[in-house]
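Input structure tokens:
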């Protein structure tokens, strides 16, 4: 096992004819953490540890690349090539989720059965950012977090505003917000072209008060000197220091899980 995940329990999970490694840590209600490109990096694993330290079971499926990859051109290019050629990822779909979300829904069901509690949380990042919305089709998903959701790729105005979610799942999401008080948390940097502002505008329009969007200033002259290219709120671009807006976003994410999942 790679040192990055040496303190996690590695298990395999099979569903829909596909078997993948999944890394587990902690006890308590489950939180499925779906990694960004390029895979389970040191920073993604560290976020999992933070979740586990707050009294949850952090569950990290590995979708592409081996754990321990870096935010290098080589590792990111390899992950993107895999995502582009595999039929499990739909990079441009506006009103349809990637097929891999069905495997993730099965994993979410397994996590809930194994961990118990009121339900599970789900975090998507970057290419997987909007996947948490599809998982909300299952009633045990109670705390969806979208961190810099980047699909569909924003080639056109309609792509930039799209949610990578089927009409049926959007209707389920809106019903759960209306009838069950479900809430969705979203995180992005203001100048992140991969996660455009139009996407959060759509979420606010569709979900109203059911969507809590945190948008961190990354424009020129921002007081925290966050670079314009900042993208990964909870991992690569996190500054774990009191008073920093990314630390505030991390704290809000962990509090969101406590509010929604704690007994």
């Amino acid at each position: 096992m790679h040192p990055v995940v040496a303190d996690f329990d590695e298990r395999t999970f099979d569903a829909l004819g596909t078997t993948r490694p999944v890394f587990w840590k902690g006890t308590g209600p489950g939180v499925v953490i779906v990694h960004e490109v390029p895979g389970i990096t040191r920073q993604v694993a560290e976020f999992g540890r933070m979740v586990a330290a707050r009294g949850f079971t952090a569950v990290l499926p590995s979708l592409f690349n081996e754990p321990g990859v870096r935010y290098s051109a080589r590792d990111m290019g390899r992950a993107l090539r895999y995502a582009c050629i595999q039929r499990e990822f739909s990079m441009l779909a506006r009103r349809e989720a990637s097929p891999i979300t069905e495997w993730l829904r099965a994993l979410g069901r397994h996590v809930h059965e194994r961990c118990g509690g009121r339900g599970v949380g789900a975090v998507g990042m970057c290419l997987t950012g909007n996947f948490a919305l599809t998982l909300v089709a299952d009633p045990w998903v109670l705390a969806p977090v979208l961190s810099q959701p980047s699909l569909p790729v924003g080639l056109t105005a309609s792509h930039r505003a799209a949610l990578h979610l089927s009409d049926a799942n959007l209707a389920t999401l809106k019903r759960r917000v209306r009838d069950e008080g479900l809430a969705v948390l979203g995180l992005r940097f203001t100048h992140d072209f991969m996660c455009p502002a139009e996407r959060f505008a759509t979420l606010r329009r569709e979900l109203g008060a059911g969507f809590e969007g945190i948008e961190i200033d990354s424009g020129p002259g921002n007081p925290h000197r966050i670079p314009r290219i900042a993208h990964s709120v909870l991992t690569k671009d996190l500054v774990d220091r009191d008073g920093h807006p990314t630390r505030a976003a991390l704290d809000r994410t962990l509090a969101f899980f406590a509010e929604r999942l704690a007994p």
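The chain has one domain: 3-261. Residues 3-261 form a domain with the Rossmann fold fold (CATH 3.40.50.1820).
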